[in-house]
């Protein structure tokens, strides 16, 4: 795929559906009413010179290059800000315009260094291009007078450089920060010749800049440019692929020199991100070539032995022999597998097939067990599908946005930017979260209501909102009668109207004033199109499934389902956690969420896999660990998942893994789980594989290989080699063939193929004969299950309660610069923003304990203890503490407990009773860990 620079044409304007005809340079053009002259010219194939205009920003009209002449009008208006009119006759190229443009460009160049031959942007510089386009050949003034050439560079940001000497003050970077990202970190300071781009701080790194890269992408010169381009040079080809971080699923152009990634540029035709990005996807790709990456298979007899490098042939043969031995001695159910939500759909499909057909059992699970398994259960029970209802663009039509248990600006930043644009345009926001997340109050965004509930009271809170809607007559009865089970609704309405669900009663439980609950409920019910977005703060509770059901009840009762701007939308965590669930990674479900007990479904796979499948559900991850402790589970194949760091009750997890006889880890790095493994199979990064990811909006995106696998094989090939060595034949030629099998056997994927995705870009399942190019909005005109099903959601307080010994409640979350357990982002320059996990504690709680900001503190629960430094802040309420979980030397899950969701075993990460006290430094186990980690780093560096 050749490197083609995407051209900017000015911002399109809203259209009324009417068209306007005009002539441009003698060519008749018909365009939608409201189109700018610049865009109309582009549609006619006529290029108008420009510098401040770009198709991702609102028209600005400051550069004075895109001037045109209009017959019958005086002056030379800017084409980017002038709308077309019927009968208009426009000239874009005249002697008068040429003279003006050359004069304007001469002024720009007079204050711009003429170092084009040695400039990193040479060949990719719009200023250079426009100088040629307007015919500028000499500059008569400026070089001997005042200029900005001596302005010092800002190299503080680890990923891009800022050279103010080359700035033409076009404001594109400022506008990108405002309009695209919504951070408002940049401004134009000074006036006239003294005008300059400023960050409001001493440098970019210490400013409010979130390093999304929008300013860098918008810059028409080398003022803002990636350091990788400076170091490597301009790319010579590109490949469009999909980011392997969060569940937004951004498309990028991997711009390359040979097999070296120069930069990742957000793809403007990406339907999830529309040309935007965050610091992780845009810049944090260096982990794929990090020196700590393991590229050779390793084995050892005992977990106390040193690793021994072996060939792929020996590693696969040894692994297969061990699994055969275990099953022969302990029975076929003594082994299992865990699929990865970072791997492709095709790779995940093969792992669950390996377990079911190769191992002969259903002991397969995935990381969704510990994050969004309640979503699958709750939404399937109420709506009939185990996924969100809308596409991301739907938020543009929302009038009220309810965010509960989610922090989009940190965990799903590209979608958050789109949400913030809608909020700045007038939509109302309700935030339900124990912590004051950025959306509650940030630049030009403020929540109408923030309900800072006590951790563990989600069900009570959503029930209270529903109570107001039912008792105050705000139910959309017409919708409920038309599309839902009326008898079930009446039972639910009777339950929800009980006094114990009233805001007054719930205020005592949640700590949120009743009046605030009532106002928020009324806004959600009466404010127009209302959409709900939720995250792990909903699902990772002992009543996670109950809360998902309660949210679905709320949406059905108000009729906020089945059209744009509304819906129930889980914000999935990892890049392919939706896909890993779709592909049958749960022990009770085959691909497409069909229960393993259904004979007809089993028959489909028994025929093509040529096996007889077990009709009984297998073990979940917690069951596998428990079974290992009692001696009945002995072997585990883990693809791309670090369960020691990511799963709860770390000590129990380690004990279970230590009791197994063959633990196989397939990953990029020696993660924490690999400390308890007997076989390490080096995995491949997203840059080295073909396939698909499915994001949080059910969008199936293509992943395309940009370099050969550094370990020799893509992950799907490794799984296939293992299956063949076990005696179960797999003979897929490529991932496209695997997707073809998925489409043949899974109704919601029936129309999906690589050919379709390459042609249309991406599709959202269901994709079948009824929806050949996908389904952006679910449940239009009725629910997938038939009638929407209301369910009783009784609030049951968690058994994890604070008390005299552990008086505080710990909740956890993510931060923008880091991702999940940090295995990828910690091996990039992102550590500049978050080099350690910190414990947020309210000033009142800190004062009571004699804790100062930055002090080491011991965080202890009945499950265990860790130490980290304190961050005193009023973002958390008194009685609540908060930390992230990105660094293994903190391991927040050392303190989390065994409590989990009643329906799915999703752990209760968000509520742990703890005590916090001053400490002298890390605990003993942390010191031991750090010494071991440092020794490992020295060994790897020496190698």
Word description of this protein:
This protein is an alpha/beta fold and 943 residues long. Helix content is 30%, strand content 16%. It is built from 29 helices and 36 strands. A hairpin with a 2-residue loop joins strand 10 and strand 11 (260-266). The radius of gyration is 29 Å and the shape is globular. The chain starts with 18 loop residues before the first strand and ends with a helix. Residues 1-14 have low confidence and may be disordered.
Topology record:
Elements (H helix, E strand, L loop, with lengths): L18 E6 L2 E6 L4 H7 L25 E2 L18 E3 L3 H16 L15 H8 L26 E3 L9 H10 L5 E3 L6 E3 L15 H5 L5 E3 H6 L4 E6 L8 E7 L2 E7 L12 H5 L14 E2 L8 E2 L2 H19 L4 E5 L5 H15 L4 E3 L6 H10 L17 E5 L3 H4 L1 H12 L3 E5 L8 E2 L2 E2 L2 E3 L6 H14 L5 H7 L2 H11 L6 H8 L3 H13 L3 E5 L1 H4 L4 H14 L9 E4 L6 H6 L6 E2 L3 E2 L3 H11 L11 H9 L5 E5 L3 H4 L3 H9 L3 E6 L11 E4 L8 E4 L4 E5 L11 H12 L8 H11 L8 H7 L1 E3 L43 E6 L24 E4 L1 H6 L7 E5 L4 E8 L7 E5 L27 E7 L5 H19 L1
Parallel strand pairs: 1-4, 14-15, 14-25, 16-17, 16-21, 17-20, 21-22, 25-26, 26-27, 31-35, 32-34
Antiparallel strand pairs: 1-2, 3-4, 5-8, 6-7, 9-10, 10-11, 12-13, 12-27, 18-19, 23-24, 28-29, 29-30, 31-36, 32-35, 33-34, 33-36
Helix pairs in contact: 8-25, 9-25, 9-26, 10-19, 13-16, 13-17, 13-19, 16-17, 22-24
Major beta sheet summary: 7 strands, mixed
Overall shape: globular
Q: By helix and strand content, what is the structural category? A: alpha/beta
How far from one another are the termini? Answer: 36 Å
Number of strands: 36
Beta-sheet strand percentage? 15-25%
Number of helices: 29
Tell me the Rg in angstroms.
29 Å
Question: Strand order of the main beta sheet, please?
Answer: 13-12-27-26-25-14-15
Helix content: 25-40%
Low-confidence runs (pLDDT<50, min 5 residues)? 1-14
Mean pLDDT: 93
């Amino acid at each position: 795929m050749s490197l083609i620079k995407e051209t900017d044409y000015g911002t399109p304007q809203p259209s009324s559906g009417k068209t306007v005809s005009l002539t441009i340079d003698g060519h008749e053009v018909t365009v939608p009413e409201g189109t700018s002259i610049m865009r109309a010219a582009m549609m006619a194939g006529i290029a108008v010179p420009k510098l401040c205009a770009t198709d991702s920003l609102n028209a600005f009209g400051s550069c004075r290059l895109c001037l045109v002449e209009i017959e019958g009008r005086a002056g030379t208006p800017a084409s980017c800000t002038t709308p077309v009119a019927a009968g208009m006759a426009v000239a874009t190229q005249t002697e008068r315009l040429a003279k003006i443009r050359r004069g304007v460009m001469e002024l720009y160049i007079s204050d711009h260094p003429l170092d084009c031959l040695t400039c990193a942007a040479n060949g990719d510089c719009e200023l250079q291009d426009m100088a040629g386009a307007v015919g500028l050949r000499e500059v008569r003034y400026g070089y001997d007078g005042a200029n900005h050439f001596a302005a010092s560079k800002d190299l503080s940001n680890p990923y891009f450089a800022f050279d103010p000497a080359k700035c033409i003050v076009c404001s594109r970077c400022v506008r990108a920060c405002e309009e695209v990202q919504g951070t408002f970190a940049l401004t134009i300071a000074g006036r006239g010749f003294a005008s300059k781009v400023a960050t409001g701080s001493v440098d970019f790194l210490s400013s409010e800049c979130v390093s999304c890269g929008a300013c860098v992408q918008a810059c028409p010169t080398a003022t803002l440019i990636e350091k990788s381009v400076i170091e490597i040079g301009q790319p010579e080809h590109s490949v469009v692929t999909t980011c392997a971080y969060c569940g937004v699923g951004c498309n990028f152009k991997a711009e390359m020199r040979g097999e070296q990634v120069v930069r990742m540029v957000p793809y403007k035709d990406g339907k999830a991100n529309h040309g935007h990005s965050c610091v992780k996807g845009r810049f944090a790709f260096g982990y794929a070539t990090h020196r700590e990456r393991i590229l050779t298979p390793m084995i050892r007899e005992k977990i106390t032995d040193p690793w021994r490098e072996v060939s792929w042939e020996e590693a696969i043969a040894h692994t297969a022999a061990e699994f055969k031995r275990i099953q022969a001695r302990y029975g076929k159910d003594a082994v299992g597998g865990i699929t990865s939500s970072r791997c492709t759909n095709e790779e995940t499909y093969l792992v669950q097939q390996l377990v079911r057909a190769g191992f002969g059992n259903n002991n397969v699970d995935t990381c969704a067990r510990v994050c969004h398994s309640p979503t699958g259960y709750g939404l399937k029970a109420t709506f009939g599908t185990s996924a969100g209802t809308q596409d991301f663009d739907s938020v543009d039509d929302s009038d009220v946005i309810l965010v509960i248990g989610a922090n989009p600006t940190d965990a799903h930043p590209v979608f958050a930017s789109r949400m913030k644009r809608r909020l700045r345009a007038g939509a109302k926001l309700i935030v339900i979260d124990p912590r004051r997340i950025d959306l509650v109050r940030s630049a030009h965004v403020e929540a109408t209501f923030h309900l800072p509930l006590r951790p563990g009271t989600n069900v009570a809170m959503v029930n209270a909102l529903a109570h107001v809607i039912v008792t105050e007559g705000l139910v959309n009865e017409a919708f409920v009668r038309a599309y839902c089970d009326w008898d079930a609704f009446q039972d639910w309405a009777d339950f929800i109207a009980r006094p114990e669900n009233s805001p007054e009663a719930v205020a005592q439980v949640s700590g949120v004033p009743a009046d605030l609950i009532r106002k928020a409920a009324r806004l959600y019910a009466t404010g127009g199109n209302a959409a709900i977005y939720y995250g792990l703060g909903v699902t990772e509770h002992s009543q996670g499934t109950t809360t998902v059901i309660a949210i679905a009840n709320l949406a059905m009762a108000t009729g906020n389902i089945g059209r744009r701007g509304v819906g129930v939308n889980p914000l999935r965590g990892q890049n392919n956690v939706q896909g890993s669930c779709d592909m049958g990674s749960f022990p009770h479900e085959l691909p497409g969420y069909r229960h393993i007990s259904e004979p007809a479904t089993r028959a489909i796979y028994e025929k093509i896999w040529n096996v007889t499948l077990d009709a009984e559900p297998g073990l979940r991850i917690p069951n596998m660990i428990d079974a290992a402790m009692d001696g009945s589970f002995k072997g585990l194949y883990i693809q791309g998942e670090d369960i020691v760091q990511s799963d709860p009750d770390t000590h129990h997890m380690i004990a279970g893994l230590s009791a197994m006889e063959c633990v196989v880890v397939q990953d990029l790095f020696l993660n924490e789980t690999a400390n308890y493994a007997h076989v390490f199979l080096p995995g491949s990064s997203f840059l080295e594989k073909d396939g698909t990811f499915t994001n949080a909006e059910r969008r199936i995106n293509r992943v395309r290989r940009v370099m050969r696998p550094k370990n020799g094989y893509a992950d799907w090939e490794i799984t296939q080699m293992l299956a063949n060595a076990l005696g179960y034949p797999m003979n897929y030629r490529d991932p496209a063939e695997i997707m073809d099998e998925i489409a043949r056997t899974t109704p919601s994927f029936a129309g999906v193929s690589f050919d379709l995705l390459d042609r249309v870009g991406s599709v959202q399942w269901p994709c079948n004969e009824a929806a050949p190019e996908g389904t952006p909005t679910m449940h239009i005109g009725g629910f997938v299950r038939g009638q929407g099903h209301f369910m009783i959601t009784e609030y049951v307080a968690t058994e994890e309660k604070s008390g005299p010994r552990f008086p505080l409640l710990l909740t956890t979350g993510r931060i923008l610069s880091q991702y999940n357990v940090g295995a990828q982002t910690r091996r990039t320059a992102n550590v500049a923003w978050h080099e350690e996990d910190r414990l947020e504690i309210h000033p009142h709680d800190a004062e009571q304990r004699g804790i100062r900001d930055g002090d080491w503190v011991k965080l202890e629960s009945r499950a265990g203890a860790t130490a980290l430094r304190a961050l005193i802040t009023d973002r958390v309420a008194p009685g609540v503490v908060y930390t992230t979980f990105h660094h293994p030397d903190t391991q927040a899950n050392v303190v989390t407990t065994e409590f989990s969701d009643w329906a799915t075993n999703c752990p209760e990460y968000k509520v742990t009773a703890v005590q916090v006290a001053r400490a002298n430094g890390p605990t003993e186990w942390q010191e031991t860990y750090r010494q071991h980690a440092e020794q490992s780093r020295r060994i790897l560096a020496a190698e």
